[in-house]
Every structure is written in structure tokens, then in C-alpha cells.
Amino acid sequence: PTSIIEMGCGKGMILFRTAASPAVTRAIGADLSRLAVEHVERTWKSHFHRTTLGPAGHGKLSTYVRDASNFAGFPDRSWSAVVVNGVSLYFPSMAYQVEVLANGLAKVQDGGCFHLGDQRSLQHQRLFCVRKARHMTSSFAECIDRAFQDGQVAKDKDRSYDHRVFYALRMRGLLANAAAVEVQLKHGAIMSEFTRYRYNVLVHVGPTAQALPLVHVADA
Q1: What whole-number distance in Å separates Cα of residue 104 and Cα of residue 216?
Q2: Which residue of 33, 102, 163, 220 sits 20 to 30 Å from the alpha carbon of 201, by its own alpha carbon?
Q3: Cβ contacts of 94 within 8 Å, gap of 6 or more
Q4: What digits encode the pLDDT tens for the residues 2-32?
Q5: Helices 164-171 and 94-105 meet at what angle, rounded to 10?
Q6: How far apart are CA 113 and CA 205, in angstroms?
Q7: How do beta strands 108-120 and 3-7 pair?
Q8: Which residues contact 195 (CB under 8 A, 6 or more apart)?
């Protein structure tokens, strides 16, 4: 990618790795936390030398204090990628996530991608809550009790999502300019919440691919 928007950039863990690439000529980092945005601004100027950033230098990164659905003022259909990673578990509702997707997709050019990363899996929510309880203080006998499991799920404040909803949004035409939706399972050498209970969603932008006609292959 040559131009990137990251909403919910936090302290720049992903933003710095992408914006610092000499191939990237424009980058935006936005977060609801003013303190996080100020940290990004300070670190960008103090830890990245302008000669390594490409012709645009430090000026290619702009920062904003705003929520993840607010893409106002960013040029439409002119960005290689929009990234929203690891913040959807704090969204107030699925409707808000759809708003983030719709507003962000309007900014992505053909051939670009909306990366919605670190989605908590709804299908694995119960297992995650029970394993977390077992790891902390709960006994095995407690953890196999259905009522105990229900209680752990009820106490879980972070939002989880059914991966199938993203396919459904695409099929119902609610993701404008989306050519395809890709769900990626997460992998890693270390077993953790991030590698066992989360997934990424990539929405590819461009013309919808036309289905090719079936070709009959004669038996050999």
C-alpha cells in the first residue's frame, strides 16, 4: 500500500510499521484518546529519521483525535488501505461496526483493502471465558458446570462477533464497493487469546468479479 488510514491507532504499534515504509506517501492515524495521539506525534518525530521515510518525510503522517466511525474530511476512494485493528471488542454494538465499515470502505480505492483485525470469535466466546476462569482461580468441577459457564459469559464485557455476519453484509449489498470478503484465522507459535480466539476480516474493494460459466469436463 502507498496510502493508509488507521482508526483506533493507539500508541502506534501498527501505524509506525506501515507509515515508516518509504513506499507509503500518505498516512493517517486517529484515536479516541488524545494522550495516545500525542504519544504518536512525539514518537514519530523523535524515533524516525526523515531520511528513512521517503520523499514525504515526517509530513506524510497526519493525526486526529476522533472515534473509529468518523472518516469526515478524508478524500473518498483514494486510499490503499484502511486498518481498524484490535478495537472492535470495545465497540458499543454491531450496528456501530457496520457504520465503521461503511464509512471506511467509501475511502478505499479499487484494488485496496479494509483490514478489520483482531475480531473476537463469538463461536469461541464460551470456551475462552471458561478457560480464562480455569487459568485464574476456578476449579475444573466449576468449569464444567453449565450454569457457571453461563455466568462467565454474562460477565464478559468485551464484544464478540460471528464471522458469518461479514459474508452476510456483503451478500446483502451493505458493504459498498466490496468485491470480496476474506476471513483469516490467526496463527502463532505461542498459544494465547490472540492466536486461538480471534480472526481477521479483509474486505477487498473493486468491481464485483463475474462468475465464470461452468465447463463440462468429459470423463477420461
Answers
A1: 41
A2: 33
A3: 159, 161, 165
A4: 999 999 999 999 999 999 999 999 999 999 9
A5: 50
A6: 6
A7: unpaired
A8: 186, 187, 188
